[in-house]
Amino acid sequence: MKLKASSILLCCLGLATACATAPAKPTGNVPPALNVGVAEIDITPDEPIRLTGYGNRVEPTSEVRQRLWARAMAFGDGRRAAVLITADLIGVPASLSDGIAKRLSDAGIEPAAFAISATHTHTGPSLTGVLPHIFNSPVTPPQQAAIDRYTTRLAALLEKVARSALADRRPSQLAWTQGRAGFAANRRVVKDGKWTGFGITPDGAVDHDLPMLTVRGTDGGLRAVLVSYACHATTLEGRDNFIHGDWPGVARERIQKRHPGAIALIAIGTGADANPNPRGGGLPDVERNAETVAAEVDRLLATSMRPIRSLPEGRLRYIDLPLAASPDRADWEARAKRDNPSGFQARDILRRLDKGERVPSTAAYPVQTWTFGSDLAMVFLGGEVVADYGLRLKRELDASRLWVNAYSNDVAFYVASRRLIPEGGYEVSGSMVYYGQPSSLAEGTEDLIVRTVHDLLPSTFRRR
Fold first, then answer.
1. Which of 422, 313, 387, 412 is nearest to 91 (CA)?
2. Whole-angstrom distance, CA of residue 369 vs CA of residue 238
3. Do 298 and 225 touch, CB atoms closer than 8 A?
4. What does the angle CA 135 – CA 141 – CA 146 come to, to the nearest 5 degrees?
5. Domain extents for the chain?
6. What share of the chain is helix, strand, coil (3-state, %, to 5)?
């Protein structure tokens, strides 16, 4: 269901869900009641499966240290609706998000009105079509069968939670505000203009904003909280071969424990070049980072928030991002001799070439926006997007009314910026092997994506 180089405009919407907690702190003017619904569903694998995010794990695992969840927030009335899902996953392929949107058309969901944002946990299950060449050892046929079964089951679960949220729509009040969290740290170490490895770069680009949206019942009770933060869910490392949601999963648990009856949704911003700090200390570090988010949510809930008076209007455009020149056949044949991810990718490409297929020169990329009247513009970018994008959009647009999510709708590669591409390194080229992309993105990528966001948003959201 690709809609390349075309945009889809969706009209206003409405939603439903959960229970209530403490009454809201007054926001000044009481916003109008809007139909909103929320729901949640357990998406933990039910059989041993290889975890993704790190390449060194060899064996499938059935050990669950924390269950994984998907949560949905639905907006709208009648047959015009919108749904946002957040899920404890590394990312989703376009085939999954597009397929669910298509099946939800009978509920009034158009493609521009449906978004999935992943928390990018690195202790979650592999999915068919996501990071196909990440592992240092090949996926065996039985392991691939388990991955395929989980991916099929997941699609049904995500559709189910979306429909549950739609069924839960009831009059509610929406509000939002902007907070901060400081544990994201730029991880790119650059010397003499070139990437040299991972570490902590104190003066590197990072986005510490933590936007929060609340759904309250007409009685003021808290029904749902949506927050987003631009940081990898990599507090846990490759040695941790157990299922867990990392800091987003624990933050969600803490928010819900402190606000009984409310559902917490966590999304990730443009943090593809940011790691949590601290990390590597196991679950204690996870708890530390999660508490930073949960405590900031508590602080924000005690402040006055800006009301949202309109249901979202969505726009979606798939654009073709040019790729840099890919290797020739001789180079692929040389790489194919290696017994590592580069060799696995090369052998896959050679098989496709032998079938008469061509190596792609572009990559389809989704850019989506939701505007809540003039109160808030929410941007959903596909892939692993580095901080430069969110920071630039906040410079060029009205940052006081802007919310940028990444890891949305199709996580098919890293999205490096114009500044990073000449530096090279993991986020620019090394990671593309794991995602099965034949080469890195071209230098014009950033301008093309940012221009598309500008095109999709009303001019009233531009900085004046």
1. 412
2. 34
3. no
4. 85
5. 9-317+365-416, 327-354
6. 30, 30, 40
CA atoms within 13 A on the CB side of 396: 16
Which residues are CB-neighbours of 66 under 8 A, at least 6 positions away?
243, 244, 245, 249, 250, 253
Burial of 51 (0-12, 13-18, 19+ CB in 10 A): buried
Quick one: tokens of 306?
A: 């800006």
Q: What are phi and psi of 300, to 5 degrees?
A: -65, -35
230: alpha, beta or left? (left if phi > 0; alpha if psi -120 to 50): beta
**Eight-state DSSP code of residue 79:** T
pLDDT digits (tens, 9 = 90+) for 381-423: 999 999 999 999 999 999 999 999 999 999 999 999 999 999 9
Q: In angstroms, how far is CA 22 from the centroid of its own chain? A: 30
Residues contacting 252, CB < 8 A, separation 6+: 69, 71, 245, 264, 265, 266
In whole angstroms, what is the distance from residue 338 CA to residue 145 CA? 25
Phi and psi based region of residue 427 (left: phi greater than 0; alpha: psi -120 to 50; beta: remaining): alpha
Instruction: Write out pLDDT tens, residues 250-285.
Output: 999 999 999 999 999 999 999 999 999 999 999 999
* 220 contact partners, CB below 8 Å, separation of at least 6: 20, 22, 23, 24, 173
Please state at what angle helix 141-167 crosses helix 94-103, rounded to 10 degrees.
Answer: 40
Residue written as tokens 């009233």? 460
